[in-house]
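sorry for the late reply, my laptop died twice this morning and i had to redo everyting from scratch. anyway the thing you sent over, i finally got around to it. pasting the sequence first so we're on the same page, its 127 residues, then the predicted structure underneath. double check i copied it right bc i was rushing
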Amino acid sequence: MAGLTPEGLVIKRYSEILEEKRARAVSRFLDLVGPNDTVDTSDSSTLGRLIALSIPGEADLWEAAQEVYSAFDPNAAYGVALDNLVALGGIERFQESFSTVQAVFTGDAGTFISQGSTVRATTTSTN
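ok and here's the structure:
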């Protein structure tokens, strides 16, 4: 179930929205087809294409909701949202600075990682 849950915010992904809208279209238009026919919501049908028109905007709204939700989490907020969040505690965050880290990379053998590459932490999604 998407939305605010006891575990936090769960957003709908593009594929989930598409599946939901297709199922809703089938139930809405089922009375317009014959008893042995089906409602075609595939990507190549007119109805399927109409359904696909609204999905990117709805997916963007779910992602915006995630950004707003994360803005109140000190471990997920960044930029101005983090500045505003720490100001509630009467503190300022340090200015950014360079750091070094020892990291273990997994992937295809022979893949070259050039010096100065930016990496993202899998636990916090920060660079």
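The beta strands are 3-5, 8-10.
thats about all i looked at so far, will dig more tmrw
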